[in-house]
Design goal:
Blueprint (H helix, E strand, L loop, with lengths): L11 H7 L28 H10 L7 E4 L2 H10 L2 E5 L4 H8 L8 E3 L2 H11 L3
Length: 125
């Protein structure tokens, strides 16, 4: 298991897809535990977001969490981060969005690329 979730990884395919420079990314956060684990970095724990905030010297409200499940949104809310939902993921999240049963604050986009594009525009990247 990884001892730290804050590692720099070069993701050429992701960077090319999103048309961003890898030098603009402070790091990638990874939850190394198995899904049935209830402690550590597993969502909806805000631990990895809190550590990333300390690592980058930012506050968690400056973070954007993109997800395709309700637990992703819950993780963002638990950390005080901005929550983004994408329609290209799990059907349960899409249904909850269209049925207006999601209680927290979030933005909804059709896919990951549209979501990241809007975030980059919002932060004037």
């Amino acid at each position: 298991m990884a001892t730290s979730v804050l590692k720099k990884y070069t993701r050429p395919a992701l960077s090319q897809l999103l048309e961003i420079r890898t030098t603009s990314i402070a790091g990638w956060c990874i939850a190394p535990e198995a899904p049935e684990t209830t402690t550590g970095y597993r969502k909806p724990s805000a631990r990895f977001i809190n550590e990333a905030a300390r690592h980058t010297g930012q506050t968690t409200d400056q973070f954007h969490v993109i997800g395709d499940t309700m637990v992703d949104l819950q993780t963002a809310w638990n950390a005080g981060a901005k929550a983004w939902a994408v329609a290209s993921g799990k059907p349960e999240l899409q249904a909850a969005h269209f049925n207006q049963t999601i209680l927290g604050s979030y933005r909804f986009k059709k896919d990951f690329t549209d979501c990241v594009s809007e975030i980059l525009e919002l932060i004037k990247f």
